[in-house]
Amino acid sequence: MALQTPRVIDEQLVFSLLRPRPADSHKGTFGTLLCLCGSLPYRGAALLATEGALRSGAGIVQLASVEPVLAACCVRLPEATLLPLSPGPDGGPGRENLGRLADSLSRCRGMLAGCGLTPSADTAFLVSRLMAQARGTVVLDADALNALAGEPLPHPAQGGLILTPHPGEMARLTGRSIGEIQQNRVETAVRFAAEQNCVLVLKGNGTIIAAPDGRLFINHTGNPGLAKGGSGDILAGLIAGLACSGLEAAEAAVCGVFLHGLAADRCAARLGQAGMLPHDILADLGAIFAEKGR
To answer: Helix, strand, or coil here: 294?
Structure first.
């Protein structure tokens, strides 16, 4: 396979894709996103992913999770709608929730799954069954990827698929070592995206976005201040929200990765790379949208 030279993502590209919101728009214009996220040990991840989706401009964001996660969400994010789920043995949503989730998904334009879940059999069951019914872009992150590692990758019935692994998750998906992944980041991403018919966001220093049709992008925004738990949850929510708002899968990934890193660069200038926290970048993200009239 002949590898392309990656296109460097810049503001001109991103804001040519992010159009101003129409004057006559309403919440239905920008879709409903279902977020299957969170568990008893990882409540904050679900909140960060949900806020990332809300800050992207999605019309309605519904967090589907166990009650302690939803209780925390009510306090921090009153804009989110909630779908209570019963817990499985690991503290995440149990497989008995499939019917409720499928009913909600039928009214959604997209789904995000994985942030704050656990890599359990119940997680793999729910994600794979829901994928078969999805009619929009699906973003899989974190333990949705880990739970499916070693299994055939499910795809939405209709719509795009975006995976957002870090190198460790990519190693589990491919059966290769982290060292091999890091030494061959472009080739790994391109081959995986083509073979698995998905958009792959291979995170790290110089995040690579590969589309199944051969498009290839590299991002140079961001800094080591993002090397903290929770940064990836915001990114996954941001990408999923952008896709729900109307961007196609590769466009949503390109815009989400660039904006996430640009907001982090501004946040580091304010607070320092060591002192900044993942949720701090959301204010900078809002400022970027405001400056561009979005």
So the answer is: coil
DSSP assignment letter at 217:
E
DSSP alpha helix (H) spans, 149-291: 167-174, 178-183, 185-196, 231-245, 249-271, 281-291
The CA distance from 200 to 214, in Å, is 11
CA neighbours closer than 13 Å in the CB half-sphere of residue 4? 17
194-239 residue pLDDT tens: 999 999 999 999 999 999 999 999 999 999 999 999 999 999 999 9
Phi, psi for residue 82 in degrees, rounded to 5: -125, 140
Mean pLDDT of 154-179: 96
Structure confidence at residue 144 (pLDDT): 97
List the end-to-end C-alpha distance of the chain, in Å, as a whole number: 39
- A 10 A CB-CB count for 175 gives 9
The pLDDT score that the predictor gives to residue 4 is 75
- Contact in structure between 79 and 61 (CB atoms under 8 Å): yes
Closest CA to 157 of 130, 125, 196, 197: 130
Alpha carbon 238 to chain centroid distance?
A: 6
